[in-house]
Amino acid sequence: MNTAHLSALEAKHAVLDQRIYAESHRPQPDTGLIATLKKQKLRVKDEISEQ
């Protein structure tokens, strides 16, 4: 596996994690957005684990 690709996936995973955290700590979090971000994060995690 290409190390650069794996690093990019890990960075994307971290960004999604930060976005989920930020949205969930807002006064009125958008639960639909949080669910979408969590699904994206899970897809990235699955792709990382396949490597």
Automatic annotation (TrEMBL):
InterPro entries: DUF465, DUF465_sf. Gene3D superfamilies: 6.10.280.50. This is DUF465 domain-containing protein. It comes from Sphingomonas aracearum.
